[in-house]
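Researcher: Here's the sequence for the chain we discussed earlier.
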Amino acid sequence: MTLRRELLALGVATLLGLGGWSASAQLLQPPPVRPDALMNAVTSEVIAILKQDLAAGRPTEVAQLIEAKILPLFDFHRMTRIAVARNWRLASPEQQGALVAQFRTLLVRTYSSALSEYRDQELAYRPLRAAAGDSEVLVRSFLRRPGAEPLTIDYDMEDGLAGWKVFDVKIAGVSLVMNYRESFAAAVRNGGIDGLIESLAHKNQPLTRAAP
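Model: Thanks. This is the structure I predict for it:
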């Protein structure tokens, strides 16, 4: 539940003179969204759009689709911090902001490339293994592929003030975030934090130029 919703529910309870956490006040609050249900809803919507465009023989604006539907579910600040590892402390606030922006663009390119290869496969989610009150969970899914083993796609998610957010993606068991650690560390060794930012900007140039 977001902070805004919590404040709204509290305000309504106060206006009605209910006070505290009475049963009536709790009924005013919408039930929390399970992280697996959240990811299932979003990915199902994205796949439905891809299927419609594929059936109609028209290209999908993949980058715009990712920007609108998928990226709001990601905690790019935490993802970048994990990828940069201990070198994160060496970056100034301005450099940290630049790193987050460049890493975000890099992940857009990664997802755009993956979705561009979509060929009507089916995505399914496994039952969530989490205890009540867990603030970090692993949401597991798999992509059915004709003539091949299913491809596992798992999401590490954290529940915060803005709701459930993804802070890592594991594809076939390989962490998308951790996969960048070695190359990021090498870039910092060779050119410092600014060198890493420049390296990411260089990688992102093809995507940036292609953007409208």
